[in-house]
Amino acid sequence: MAYDDAVTGSRGRRRKALGQHRLVDHSVIRRIVRAADFSDEDTVIEVGAGSGVLTEMLAQRASRLIAVEVDAEFTAGLRERFRGRDNVSVVEADVLSISPEEVLTRGGGRLPYVVVGNLPYSIGSAILRHFLTARAQPRWLLVTLQAEVARSIAAGPGKMSYLSVEMQYYAQPRLLFEIPAAAFRPPPKVRSAVLRLDTRQGAAVEVDDREAFFRLVQAGFAAPRKQLRNALSIGLECGAAEAESMLGMAGVEQTRRAQTLTLEEWAGLYGAYRRMTVSATQ
Questions:
Q1: Nearest 5°: CA angle at 51, between 18 and 118?
Q2: How does pLDDT run across 231-275, given as a tens digit for each residue?
Q3: pLDDT 10s digits, 194-222
Q4: Boundaries of CATH 3.40.50.150 in the chain?
Q5: Eight-class DSSP state of 200
Q6: Which of 55, 75, 133, 195 would give a disulfide with 92, using CB separation of 3.0 to 4.6 Å?
Q7: CA 121 vs CA 127, 131, 161, 230: distances in Å
């Protein structure tokens, strides 16, 4: 999604395919800008700058603002609009194909940095993952997402999903406010929401292999409506007795479901899984 003024023809169809709708309610845009409490020391990276409505408001406060935009026509418009504004740089790129470090280098920015953006529905989670797993993480991200996705990311135990665990491993999310469909043109079929993610100093829990940890969590959510004993048996392709043993070792009741576990309980379950895996190979 982009904060743009006009979407027409084939260009509009391409943006629609990315889930891009124009946020036209300036009161909502101003509310987003107020929530972006960056300092003079921060470089601000705006993802999906469009024609620069949000960019204009951010540029009034940012000492260094890098507007990242994939659309060549929008990029040309942004460069014309902010020509002579020494604190604004425009980088034409697919944000998923360029590292945050390269964005900073090409845009004349530096650490620390923050991220602001109205993200396409189709790749919103991927963009968050891209920044959160980068070697140089932002201090925080303030993004507009599909409301259902934002709620899932910010969910607590009882309503957790794989996405909740993954995002909360790296950051502390807060759902700030929802945006009605009428604030966009054309109106999307779903509501949107503004989410803030403050990156952690280190991870939320200590694990010796991050990829193996997430594979276990993914296995636990393989059948989220089933009890963990059965879900893990399906996801790990192991017997029910082995799954029961793992849960017992971790002190997790086997009848619980994946969405009820805290990150600490997932870490404990991962520890039991690793011990069992090591024992099986000896």
A1: 45
A2: 999 999 999 999 999 999 999 999 999 999 999 999 999 999 999
A3: 999 999 989 999 999 999 999 999 999 99
A4: 9-199
A5: P
A6: 75
A7: 10, 17, 18, 32
Cα–Cα nearest to 216, from 238, 194, 197: 238
Residue 39 tokens, joined = 């300092």
Residue with tokens 């409505």: 53
Quote the crossing angle between the two packed helices 240-250 and 263-281, to the nearest 10°. Answer: 120
Q: Which residue bears the tokens 């929401």?
A: 193
- Give the DSSP per-residue string, 1-31: ----S---HHHHHHHHHTT--EE--HHHHHH
In 3-state terms the chain splits into helix, strand, coil percentages (rounded to 5) of 45, 20, 35
What would the two tokens of residue 43 be?
């470089």
CA nearest to 122, candidates 29, 1, 32:
1
Range(s) of the chain covered by CATH 1.10.8.100? 210-281
Q: For 116-131, give one letter per residue: b (16+ CB within 10 A) or e.
A: bbbbbbebbbebbbbb
CATH H superfamily, domain 210-281 = rRNA adenine dimethylase, C-terminal domain (1.10.8.100)
User: What type of residue sits at position 222?
Assistant: A
Helix/strand number for the chain, H first, E second: 12, 9
| Residue 177 host element (H or E) | strand 171-179
User: Looking at domain 9-199, does it have CATH number 3.40.50.10160?
Assistant: no
- In angstroms, the CA 79 to CA 259 distance is 46
CA distance to 72, 127, 135, 136, 205, per residue, from 154 (Å):
34, 16, 23, 23, 17
Q: What is the rounded average pLDDT for all residues in the chain?
A: 91
> Token pair for residue 20?
């891009």
Handedness of CA 273, 276, 281, 282 (dihedral sign): positive
Give the amino acid at 96.
L
Q: Which residue has the higher pLDDT, 109 or 3?
A: 109
